[in-house]
Amino acid sequence: MHINYEIEEEILCRQWFYRFRLPSGRTTESYLTEEVLRIHDCRKQMLIETLEAEFGNSWRHVSCLDLACHEGYFAHALAERGCKEVLGIDARSEHVAHANLMRTAFGQTNLRFAEGDIQRLTASEFGRFDATVLFGILYHLENVVGVLRLAQAVTARVCLIETQIAPNLSGVTDWGSYKSVKEIVGCLAIVDETTELAGHNREASLTAISLVPSLPGLMWLLKAVGFQSSKVITPPADAYEQLATGKRVVVAAYNS
Q1: Are 70 and 98 in contact (CB under 8 A)?
Q2: 8 Cα distance to chain centroid
Q3: Distance between CA 221 and CA 218 in Å, rounded?
Q4: Do 158 and 254 contact (CB within 8 A), yes or no?
Q5: Which whole-number Å values give the CA distances from 205 to 39, 68, 165, 208, 241, in the listed order?
Q6: What pLDDT tens digit does each residue of the chain (256 aa) get?
Q7: How would you label 117-129 residue by residue, b for 16+ Cβ within 10 Å and e otherwise?
Q8: Which string of DSSP letters, residue by residue, matches the chain?
Q9: For a disulfide at 243, which of 207, 222, 233, 239, Cβ 3.0-4.6 Å?
Q10: Which domains does the chain have, with CATH numbers?
């Protein structure tokens, strides 16, 4: 592989959210702690292993869409596996610029990035992809259902979702009268991200309103928006603590 040292020097002049290993063997400096950085390795392992189980050795025939791709870490990993096409979408222009810088460093012709808010985009703007990725974003959104509908519409086979989950609320609630009740099938917890936005946190939502699904709520919504089936992916034995304890989950939702 040709090593573009000029691009690498530009990359190494700043801190990144992720730790990338560059073609020269040097690694980017992350502004996260070593402990928190482990979540990215765990997420990537679960992503790749799940897709390998689905597609086997046919990566060169697989198209992937990474919704809210941030700096392109997972899109980059999929491109490295040899996918025929990987598209990353992110609402922040700086993330797209950084992702493109990394793509240039690796010379990945099967990878591209575009700017867009997944809460406002439509499926007609993309077409369909064999696999879609929604990692670390669902719990930062106010339009959770709309994004799940988008994901279902653009997914030909499997969508992988990694998200924080909220405690579940179950039971029944009055429905127009004390004589009529409805079962609570799941819930969305409201989280205020005003402080994060004020501090220009690059991992925060675009608005102060974040709706965090409970696991039963997420599984019910996946069925309601049209996925044929879904399952929670078992984390590895050495998983990051939130994934190991079920406070975060990776869910695979299938359209075929």
Answers
A1: no
A2: 26
A3: 5
A4: yes
A5: 19, 11, 16, 7, 23
A6: 678 899 999 999 999 999 999 999 999 999 999 999 999 999 999 999 999 999 998 999 999 999 999 999 999 999 999 999 999 999 999 999 999 999 999 999 999 999 999 999 999 998 999 999 999 999 999 999 999 999 999 999 999 999 999 999 999 999 999 999 999 999 999 999 999 989 888 888 889 999 999 999 999 999 999 999 999 999 999 999 999 999 999 999 999 8
A7: ebbebeeeebeeb
A8: ----HHHHHHHHTSEESS--B-TTS-BPEESS-HHHHHHHHHHHHHHHHHHHHHHTT-GGG-EEEEET-TTTHHHHHHHHTT-SEEEEEES-HHHHHHHHHHHHHHT-TTEEEEE--TTT--GGGT--EEEEEEES-GGG-S-HHHHHHHHHHHEEEEEEEEEE-BPP--EEEEEEETTEEEEE---EEEEE-HHHHHTT-TTS-SSSEEEEEBHHHHHHHHHHTT-SEEEEPPPPTT--HHHHTTSEEEEEEE--
A9: 239
A10: 5-164+222-254 (3.40.50.150)
Are 110 and 86 in contact by the 8 Å Cβ rule? The answer is yes
Whether the CA torsion 175, 176, 177, 179 is positive or negative: it is negative
Judge contact between 25 and 6, C-beta under 8 A: no
